[in-house]
Design a protein that fits this description.
Elements lengths: L1 E2 L15 H14 L3 E4 L2 E3 L7 H17 L3 E4 L2 E3 L4 H6 L11 E5 L8 H13 L3 E5 L10 H10 L2 E5 L9 H12 L5 E3 L11 H11 L3 H16 L5
Parallel strand pairs: 1-2, 2-4, 3-5, 5-6, 6-7, 7-8, 8-9
Helix pairs in contact: 1-2, 4-5, 7-8
């Protein structure tokens, strides 16, 4: 398995608080069979100041620990959408995944933009030459609609859901929605969105893989490994 959305880099966002905590979760990653991890700390493009230097420094420290465990680490960001996202991407003030054209984009959980504005936003990102990945659409209550996801996917937006959303511990409305997405083959990627906590960890990726593979192993392999591998190995910028 490969994870392309998590918050394992220590002391840079609301994920891991310390190097020791990150190392603990590297051991968990190893134990459940995750081979490659793209680290995606939050970065809010509305802020003029960027913690990229600290992110890179802490990433390099963690990468040394990952190498000892046979885990490959790559770097990216989870980017909060704002109107100047393309400018910041072009200036490399926010990071794509492993320096490719793929960018992980999130919205505020309580966001209630007009849907046409969201379609237009993603069209602009695509027209600028980037390949947007929408982070966890199931968590946006205002957009938890099949037609919304279908339209985005048809536009070329990559759909990423959280592994915890596939488990029975998820809120029922989220659980039902993501299983409907899976049933209709609308999911491109399952990722942990781990914040190195009891509730949001890396074990959930293996648990979610078992859930999907029981019904369709080929599809499970595609959305837990193959699509992620293609992203990591795609042409860099």
């Amino acid at each position: 398995m490969i994870d392309i959305h998590n918050h394992i880099i220590f002391d840079v966002d609301d994920g891991s608080r310390s190097l020791e905590q990150s190392i603990e979760y590297l051991d968990e990653i190893k134990s459940v069979g995750i081979e490659k991890v793209v680290c995606t700390p939050h970065i809010n493009v509305k802020h003029k100041s960027s913690p990229l230097d600290k992110i890179r420094n802490n990433f390099n420290i963690l990468k040394e620990e990952a190498n000892k465990r046979g885990i490959e680490l790559f770097l990216g960001n989870e980017v909060m959408y704002s109107s100047n996202i393309i400018d910041l991407l072009n200036k490399k003030e926010v990071l794509t995944l492993n320096n490719t054209k793929y960018v992980l984009v999130e919205f505020k959980r309580n966001e209630n933009m007009d849907e046409e504005n969201i379609y237009n936003a993603f069209s602009r990102i695509i027209d600028a030459g980037y390949k947007p990945i929408l982070a966890h659409p199931e968590l946006y209550s205002h957009y938890r609609k099949m037609e919304f996801v279908k339209k985005l996917k048809n536009m070329g937006v990559i759909i990423q859901i959280d592994s915890t959303s596939l488990l029975m511990t998820a809120p029922i409305e989220i659980y039902m929605f993501v299983h409907k997405l899976i049933k209709n083959y609308l999911v491109d990627i399952v990722a942990t969105d781990s914040h190195c906590s009891k509730d949001r960890n890396f074990k959930s990726l293996y648990q979610a893989y078992k859930v999907v593979s029981r019904k369709n192993k080929g599809y499970a392999d595609t959305i837990f490994h193959d699509n992620q591998n293609e992203i990591i190995n795609s042409k860099t910028q």
